[in-house]
Amino acid sequence: MRIVVSGTHASGKSTLVSDFAARHPEFVVLPDPFELVDEAWDFPSAELFATQLRLSAARLHPDETAGHLLSERGPIDFLAYLLALDEFNSAPGSRELFARSIEITQGAMRHVDLLVVLPLDRDAEIFVPRDEHLPLRELMNDVLLDLVDDDQIVGANTNVVEIVGNRNQRVAALEELITPAHFRF
């Protein structure tokens, strides 16, 4: 099974991935692509998000990472960031960049069985510092929720599930989703 955990920054992705991985060592865990970017980025940019989109898409291919995997973020996250950043800024971004990013995302999502979306949830008890670009966080969340409803982006064979609640409720919900009785293969 190939699982991607998606959500805006400070939505609980790292915690869910860590909690699930501790209970399921059979899954290869792919960290947030931001950890793989060599350069220091002080501020969100289209270049940063496009780089992470490409990295996250490449590692989802079965030739790159075989077997069961749990990925913190996927290309759909960074497509959402690109679109949110474009909406946030007054100057429109590159149409070519958006078209290529959509194409890459669509191709990578073919290799995902389950897309777990963590929408912003006040009950999740997540502390978010003010320097976390809060307006972009909110906007990305809204864009992501729109994207995950688009079968042309996600693909018809990927199960999409939103998970909310506290830490224990989230990991329990994900564990329930990986049982054969609840997952269509």
UniProtKB/TrEMBL annotation:
InterPro entries assigned: NadR/Ttd14_AAA_dom, P-loop_NTPase
Domain NadR/Ttd14 AAA as annotated: residue spans: 2-169
Signal peptide: none
Transmembrane segments: none
Pfam families reported in the protein's UniProt record: AAA_28 (PF13521)
The protein, known as: NadR/Ttd14 AAA domain-containing protein
Organism: Agromyces tropicus
Phylogenetic placement of the source organism: Bacteria, Bacillati, Actinomycetota, Actinomycetes, Micrococcales
